[in-house]
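Can anyone check this?
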Amino acid sequence: YRLVEFVLGLPADFKIADGVTKRVLREAMRGILPEPIRTRMDKLGFVTPEEVWLREQREVFRQKMQQAMERADGILTPAALAMLDAMAEGKRPFHFAPWRAICFGEWLGCFQVQTGRS
């Protein structure tokens, strides 16, 4: 936790400068990591196949969206479910908005958050 606190307290230009992210970490790895790896700019985070999951597990996603809508108490409208259905049917290009809405609903449930809307 001390390392996290230290890094979070660093000025912004120590974290990113001239479009280079993880500046302090990259400098700390100089001479340890091979230069082509240390200086790579095409790194991606962990990528998950949400689009494939949506098409293969449509009913699971629908249930999770309906649950999220109930938990969100009006913050998420039926339009969220319609968007999910349209994407699953290939009538609309994939977008992460329904996935984020489902994650929001899971967060509400996990932490027992009440929206205060009802």
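Reply from J.R.: I decoded it. Helices lie at 2-8, 12-15, 23-28, 35-38, 50-56, 58-72, 78-88, 97-110.
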